[in-house]
Structure formats: C-alpha cells, structure tokens
Design a protein that fits this description.
- The protein contains ten helices and four strands.
- It is mainly alpha-helical.
- The longest helix has 22 residues.
Amino acid sequence: MRKVEVMDEMPPQSPDGDGPAEGGAPHPRKAEPIFNLPSGILIVLGGLALIYAIQSLVLSAPLAQWLAITFGFSPVRYVYPLSEQGFEWLWSPVTYSFLHGSIEHLAFNGLWLAAFGTPVLRRIGNMRFVIFWITSSAAGAIFHAAFNWGEPTVMIGASGVVSGLMGAACRFAIGLSGRALPSFTGYQPPRLSIGAALSLKTVRVFILVWFAGNVAIALGLPLFGDFAGTVAWDAHIGGFLFGFLFFALFDPIRSEIRLR
C-alpha cells in the first residue's frame, strides 16, 4: 500500500492412480499446471498487471494522474458535502486497491496476494472472495481516513486487501498441522474461533511480527528507509483486523474450533 502525493485447485486424484487401465495401455499422466494457483487468483493478478501496464505504458502523465486522483482514495473528499461533488467518494474506497505506483509495489502485493489469497479463495469460493475484496478494501480505507482525516493525499494499492487475507488466513491456515491438506484432498479444516486462533503460538507470533512491522512504519523508523513514509500502515491494520475478526461472515464452513 502506498500513499502518493497528488499526493484449480489441484483436481482430486483418481483413486486408480496412474496405473494401467484394465486390459489396456497406461493412463496418460496429466500435465501439472505451471502455476499451482486457483484461476481466480490468476485472473486478479493478471488484471492488476494489466491496469498497471495501462497506467505506466499507455496513458500520458496527465491521464495517469487523473486516474490516480479519480480512482485513488483521498480522505479530503469526506470533509466536503457529498452532494457537492462527484461519486468518487463512493467508488474510491474500493477502486484504489486496483492501482499501483510502481512495478515493485505491484510485485510485492502480487506475491503476498498469491500466498494468502490462494488458501482463502479455495476455502470461500470466487463470489465470496469478490465480496471479501470489496469489504476489506473499504475497511482499510476507513481506517486510513480515520488517521488522516481531511488530508489531500491519494492512497493506492492492494495491500489493505492483502492484509485482510492475512488476517483471514490466521483463522484456518496458520498454526494447524495438516493445513496443506486442502491442496491435495479438498478437505477444509474447521475455522478457529478468535480465541482459539490467538491461543496458538504460531498465530500469535505471526500477528505480533506483522503489527510490529506496521508500527515501525507508523513511527517512521529508518528500518524501512525513505519508503516507509509512503506506506499506508493504517490501511494495513484496518484490513487485517477486518479479515481476522469478521472472516466467519464469509466462511461457508460452519464448524468452528473453540477454546474449552
């Protein structure tokens, strides 16, 4: 996430394996996909890359700036009466998540999106994933606006959503043995309650390290160099809290592990 000033699933394995068919030649071995990612994640990654290519290679500098201002999220919009402006205030809490400021920015978010979006999408499905994207993006924007109320900056980037996916993954994919099974068997483990998730050391360490990094960004520590000042740490926290606290609303699996 940056602030800029202007600012198939693996198919179930056949129970017969790869052995020869009865009385015939061996079954041909299925080709493994080049990318072991759900098609939905590949579509999202391709879409983000296409948008960035248009931004950086097709549009002129004035048009690229117009795109960032029109579809990026700016807290200053909400200081003025909504009836006296266009509808940017309505769509920008979501559309900012489709824009990126550099190829490094896009690559960083893309890698984390592939890592954490894959288990979440496989669990909740494409439609719920779209709704999760919209709502976690809005949650990141709300948090950002709360800490930067009235600021004439423009925020772009998908890392608020990526942070939401990280929070969601803490409820079922981190800290449990056998968490890789869904990729091979289709089995999805029960969701952890918030308390049960926090009782796992792996989840606690993950959350503490994640929050420590964002607090360091907020304090402007030199750990991140000059880049730290352009990172919207507040949107990261808003997205993460949303994904962690409200994942159950999107999870089609009703079973949940609770503390005894």
